[in-house]
Structure formats: structure tokens, C-alpha cells
Write a structure and sequence with these properties.
It is built from ten helices and no strands. By secondary structure, the chain is mostly helical. It has two domains: 104 residues, no CATH class; 70 residues, no CATH class. Helix 2 crosses helix 5 and helix 4 crosses helix 8. The radius of gyration is 23 Å and the shape is elongated. It is found in: Membrane.
Length: 197
């Protein structure tokens, strides 16, 4: 019994070190009011909400695959934005009620530290990041295919073709992948370039 109490006390001390105090109405009240770092404002902090909108854009871009896009896109988009907004607000208030302001401001993985199973939180984070990247790699070729089919840029007409029942834009996917890899390689200097500098 004493060992269990010691373990609990030690865990509480470790959690307090990481900024996780536990539910406190006073903490929620203190964290509810704005206290921006120097150089920050409402609009710079609002950028945290941006990822909730990028998934909706991926849904727009793949709307051509739907049976009834005119009915499904507005309903799905509004539902996605509403659910994302609701979950972001709940998550924000929960973290604000159990963590110190310093931990929320400076520890970008505080949610992993306070979650019941931190490994699952990280796994979900990696999977959602990968899904977002894959959505971008699939939706950009769809837009390119539509531009080619409408002959907005006549030189791209060859990218308007699709394969299979969904008219998958294979040529546009290849072109988009090549352009993406080129920009990634340009952004990552080679190790030998550092050695010669």
C-alpha cells in the first residue's frame, strides 16, 4: 500500500514538472484569457486552426469521385468543418483545464504527455500527418487533370487522361510527384555542400 502511494506521489511530481497539474477550475479560468507572447496576436495564433481546413480542401478536390457531388460536397464540407471545430474547442478547453500556461505555450507535445496512452497519441499524429500528405499528393493531380480537360493551358492537354473507372490521373500524379521531389531536394542541401562551405 505504501509503495503504491509513493508511486502515485512520484507520478504526480513528474507530471507537475511537465506542466500537467490535473483538473482545476482556476487553471481553466487563468488559461481562458489571452496572454500573447511578444510579437504574437490573435491572428498569428489562429493559424493553429488551419490544419482543420486543409482536410476539407482535400475533400473538395476529390468531389468528382462522388455519385452526387452537388449534394454531398456542401453537406460533407459543413459537417467536416463543424466536427473539426467542435473537437478543437473541446481539446483546447480540456488542455487549458489541466495544464499550466507555460507548458501549453512551450511544450508542443504536451498532449502526448497528458494522454492516457502517449504512444497511441503519437501514432495518431503520425498517421494523420501521413494521410494529409497523401491527400495533397492525390488532390493536386486531380486539379491538374481538370485544368487539362478544360484546356485552360493547352500544353497540359495530355494530363487530362485518366485510367480506370474513376479516371485516376496517372500522368498528373507522376508530374506532381516529380515536381514535389524536385522542391524537396532543392530545400535539402547535400552533405558535401556543407563540407565545402
Amino acid at each position: 500500500m505504501k509503495k503504491r502511494r509513493r508511486r502515485k506521489r512520484k507520478r504526480k511530481e513528474e507530471n507537475a514538472e511537465h506542466g500537467f497539474i490535473g483538473y482545476s477550475p482556476e487553471l481553466l479560468q487563468n488559461n481562458a484569457l489571452p496572454d500573447y507572447s511578444p510579437g504574437e496576436s490573435f491572428f498569428t495564433v489562429f493559424g493553429v486552426f488551419f490544419p482543420a481546413a486543409t482536410g476539407v480542401m482535400a475533400g473538395f478536390n476529390m468531389g468528382g469521385d462522388l455519385r452526387e457531388p452537388a449534394a454531398s460536397i456542401p453537406l460533407g464540407s459543413l459537417a467536416a468543418v463543424g466536427i473539426s471545430w467542435f473537437l478543437y474547442i473541446i481539446f483546447t478547453f480540456l488542455l487549458g483545464a489541466i495544464c499550466t500556461r507555460e507548458a501549453l505555450r512551450y511544450d508542443f507535445l504536451i498532449a502526448e504527455k497528458v494522454s492516457l496512452v502517449g504512444f497511441l497519441f503519437l501514432l495518431g499524429l503520425y498517421i494523420s500527418s501521413l494521410a494529409s500528405c497523401m491527400g495533397g499528393l492525390y488532390s493536386a493531380p486531380r486539379i491538374l487533370q481538370c485544368i487539362a480537360q478544360e484546356k485552360v493551358i493547352p500544353a497540359l492537354a495530355c494530363l487530362g487522361q485518366g485510367k480506370g473507372p474513376n479516371k485516376t490521373p496517372v500522368a498528373a500524379i507522376c508530374l506532381t510527384s516529380l515536381v514535389t521531389m524536385a522542391f524537396v531536394l532543392v530545400g535539402q542541401p547535400l552533405p558535401c555542400a556543407w563540407a565545402s562551405a
